[in-house]
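Narrative of activities, Objective 1.

The group set out to show that a structural description can be obtained from nothing but a protein's sequence at a throughput compatible with the screening campaign. Below is one input-output pair from the validation batch, recorded exactly as produced.
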Amino acid sequence: RTYSMDTLPQEFPCYGNGDFRSTAFAVENADGSMSCDLRYKSHVILDGKYNLEGLPAVYANEEEAQTLEILMEDPVTGVKVVLLYGVLPAQDIITRSVSVKNESSGKIYLNKIESASLDFLYGDYELLTFYGRHAMERNVQRVPVVHGTQKIGSVRGTSSHQYNPMMILAEKETTEDKGNCYAMSFVYSGCFQGEVLKDQLNQTRMMLGLQEEAFRYPLETGEMFQAPEVILSYSNKGLSALSQQYHHCIMNHI
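Output recorded for this entry:
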């Protein structure tokens, strides 16, 4: 392993900086270029849970949660991104959202934005997704994670009953009562997509957010875009405990 953006784990992988895997963020700059190289600028930790204006989201008071905001900037174009994390320790929940502000000299276009991305350096996983149709929703499909990209989503204008906007990565021996499993659930009822891919070094990337097909969001100088929220959770006691963590969060904090 050498220092390569194509092999390193990343918190918010961007298109056009040397990572040739599926990325969470793609932007067309004012000069027509498609590259983005976000760098850490600063961070702040706040008591309570951040709010998303005009969007559904987890809520929690100052005693129940904390917020981490990480500011990133492309030093060439001036595009700024804030990664938002809401941490609810008692619920075993971390929420994740992303806001983008155009501080470049001209109009830019967002071509892809996923609200959450996780890179796993090791592990042999299976992917659980939930498919269906009218009056037969949320059937469980469990398949091995293979080399290449596995994708679910909706272009119907709603999340729909064809695919539920949630994914679980589980170690192969995971059952209802034992084993490690990681989940993402999108708090949004519109078009969405989820991706899981295994790279050439057997690393696994998991992403969930807005559907990129036909998505091209313009931002004039000074304008901001707020992505919807993803709820993340982990269990080392199997799928049943993972489900209960989501149940408690949704019943009490949505």
